[in-house]
Design brief:
alpha/beta; TIM Barrel; eight-stranded parallel β-sheet
Length: 261
């Protein structure tokens, strides 16, 4: 039986200890974490791995902030600062026993052009990850050409792929991400939508072809957790009821496991 994992930010503000207890109570084995303060205000994020473990959960990975990610490709102090923060997160992961960091490499449909300065910054990040025994997992977004270019330019056993089913369904359905990068798959963000926007609904409430998706994930040799990234208040998900949301999420994870096996 595969482990079940949930992203800790599921759209309901509550104390982290209560949140982890509710996730465990719903039948999940682990969590994916959000670190930093670009978008979600988790000022004490470095305390959360230990807190999650005290509530019986393992830490699957952490997600880095991405509000300023386009600066990565621009020359200047903002890009250098953003790259330095990514390196700091790699060090934090190593110190807190978190095996993988999830990284966005662009934002929007029209990011800055790819540049040598951007590739150099990502290479330095991966070199740090190699020294610290941490994986850097690149997540599929709106621009598959950026993802392909990074894997073409940087060769490292620590450079991995995070497959986001919702992004693939509504942003870039034409790119076969699992076919291209399935051999590098180290993380999953499984959620659903109707193809019009990134809704983060529970699986089986939208138009993602889950039978096909899970078959491809299994065919890629992925043997990790079934990891959901679902939020409340969207589409078919209940708003404001943590236990009901987590119950639906847990049931959908069980169904996904049946498809992958």
């Amino acid at each position: 039986m595969r482990k079940k994992v949930l992203f800790e930010w599921f759209g309901i503000v509550m104390p982290m200890a209560e949140k982890y207890a509710a996730i465990k109570r719903a039948g999940f084995d682990g969590v994916m974490m959000w670190w930093g303060s670009d978008d979600l205000q988790y000022d004490d994020y470095l305390l959360n791995p230990e807190l999650a473990r005290k509530n019986g959960l393992f830490v699957e990975n952490m997600h880095t902030p991405f509000a300023r990610v386009n600066s990565l490709w621009r020359d200047g102090l903002e890009g250098e600062d953003y790259a330095a923060n990514l390196t700091r997160y790699a060090n934090d992961c190593s110190e807190r026993g978190v095996p993988t960091m999830i990284v966005h490499i662009s934002h929007g449909f029209d990011p800055p052009p790819m540049s040598e300065v951007g590739f150099d910054r990502l290479k330095r990040l991966v070199e740090t990850a190699e020294r610290k025994n941490v994986n850097v997992a690149i997540e599929n977004l709106r621009r598959g050409d950026y993802t392909r270019a990074v894997f073409e330019r940087i060769d490292s056993p620590r450079l991995k792929f995070c497959y986001d089913s919702g992004h693939a369904n509504c942003f870039d359905a034409a790119t076969d991400y699992l076919g291209l990068f399935g051999d590098k798959l180290a993380a999953l963000h499984l959620h659903d939508n109707d193809g019009s926007s990134d809704m983060h609904n529970a699986p089986f409430t939208g138009t993602v072809d889950w039978a096909r998706t899970m078959k491809k994930i299994g065919g890629a040799g992925y043997n990790g957790a079934i990891s959901l990234e679902v939020f409340c208040g969207e589409g078919a998900l209940p708003s404001g009821d943590a236990d009901e949301l987590l119950r639906l999420a847990s049931e959908s994870a069980d169904k996904l496991e049946g498809l992958i096996e």
